Amino acid sequence: MAEIPTLKKIQDRFGSKGFALLGISLDESRDALDKKVKDAGLDWTIGFDGKRWQAGPAVRYNIHSIPSNWLIDRDGTIRKKNPEPEAIGELVAELLGEGDGGKKGE
To answer: Is the pTM of this model over 0.70?
Structure first.
């Protein structure tokens, strides 16, 4: 939850250029997840199946800790696993051809 403000800024900055956030919840309760989403003001898609650590993505991608951030390009290639939240903006900018961290024109 501590990373959410940073992720929101990145979404705001790059969303119009094709960047999208996708969350995968490992919560057991849909009600608990819905409350977290509402309280945090999240506006991106969050997958949920209620299976916690046995959820499809957690098993398939060998996820053992949360948060787990992955940067995946438009072709579906995993470009970076678990970058620091502060580095995600720069990595996205590089993928979008804005190698100065997305600050061009600011």
So the answer is: yes
